[in-house]
Specification:
Elements (H helix, E strand, L loop, with lengths): L1 H22 L7 E7 L1 H4 L14 E8 L24 H7 L8 H14 L9 H14 L2 H7 L10 E2 H12 L6 E7 L2 E11 L6 E2 L14 E2 L11 H7 L2
Antiparallel strand pairs: 1-2, 1-5, 3-7, 4-5, 5-6
Helix pairs in contact: 6-7
Keywords: Disulfide bond, Endonuclease, Hydrolase, Lyase, Nuclease, Signal
Family: Belongs to the RNase T2 family.
GO molecular function: endonuclease activity; hydrolase activity; lyase activity
Amino acid sequence: MKSSNILLHALLLLLVLCSFTTCDAQSRVHHLEMVQTWPNTFCQSTRCATPIPDNFTIHGLWPAAIDGHSLKNCNTTYNQSSTYYQGIRGDMDKYWPYLKGKTPKQNENYWWYQWTKHGCCQKEFQPHDYYMKAIKLKNDISPLKILGDSNILPGSSKPYTKNAIFKAFAKVIGIGNKIWLTCHKKNGHFMLKEVYVCFDPKGNSPVSCTWTAKARTCGNGTILFPSPEVGSCDLFRFLLSIS
């Protein structure tokens, strides 16, 4: 009986410790990940609503731990409300659309999903300010412009190296600040899918992304940057053109 009580107390202590180390994610925010998606790659692997945007769109603004893993599914005391988008609704629809949806309500559900899964794991911003910060960072950091300024253009038959993409961003966010890239692989080719740019917990200054393993999703070779005109039916012709 005595040993059973000791075991019970040990289990209760373990649960308490776990609640502090895994659930209190707010205390572990090391940086914010501003994640932007290139729709023309994303829509190669899933059915998207048309028209497909011809610019990078926001996937999310994700609090992350020091090892780079995004913090997820923390408790939130807020309830879903359209008031969070007052004054920024037009920008939200434009820069943060739900690529697989067609209705304003689907957009709102997607934004709320991003808050409940990621956004509420930080304590700097309430929902409205969180969404405003994401829009501001989107306007400050435009991957399409950054890449274009370095002559990395969508639709070119020329594959690009990761190093060339990294250098393009270094001109804007600082040489010492590393970004992450993710890609979609199809027919043996890696296509640029998402760009992660990291910021301090208040979203004021770029910092280096810390989870370098994410870059491995783009392989060790070159990366394609498919044009807005390339849809799933035209992908085979596009790949033939660069062979």
